[in-house]
Amino acid sequence: MTDVPSMRGAEVGRRIGVGLMYGLWKPRVLGSWRVPASGPVILAVNHSHNIDGPMVMGVAPRPTHFLIKREAFVGPLDPFLTGIGQVKVDRHSTDRTAIARALGVLEQGGVLGIFPEGTRGEGDFASIRAGLAYFAVRGGAPIVPVAVLGSSDRPGRLIKALPPLRSRVDVVFGDPFDAGDGSGRRTRKALDEATARIQKQLTAHLENARRLTGR
Prior knowledge:
By secondary structure, the chain is α/β, with parallel strands linked by helices. Helices cover 37% and strands 17% of the residues. Helix 1 crosses helix 2 (52-59) and helix 5 (131-139) crosses helix 6.
């Protein structure tokens, strides 16, 4: 039996994230009330900065278990990330252990955080992998789109993948939606259709978030 990531550990991670994110940057959180207060939920987050995961982990209203690439689990970070309930995933294969752990989070009514683009890039949801649709349909979980809008185009960054220290970072939560068509089908065709629906919703949320924040 696969171990389910620790819910208590994720709450500890959330508290650490709050301290770090508010200490180093100036988060402005909009719409966090849209995250359902209970039951399984997937947070679908755009990914353009290395702080996107920790930022959402810190400002989300519920403890969140992120799917994180295994390359991040190096040295002391391995037991730390595992201890705070994060899920190690091999992006280059069908990682059945990670899939089982992620589904376990949803089965226990927890919050799963996913970067649907699979890796850090432009953060514009232009390329979405099918994994998000699979977890949403299989786990019976609504998706809440999350836009993290930093200061990627401004000078003053000490590290390229991070916004400047003490700069404002906007985190905008959108309305939850169901990815499936209500049939519960998990065929390739059904998941492809769900992925298309998801991409449309996430892109619309990102455009709205940019209008709302002026980013």
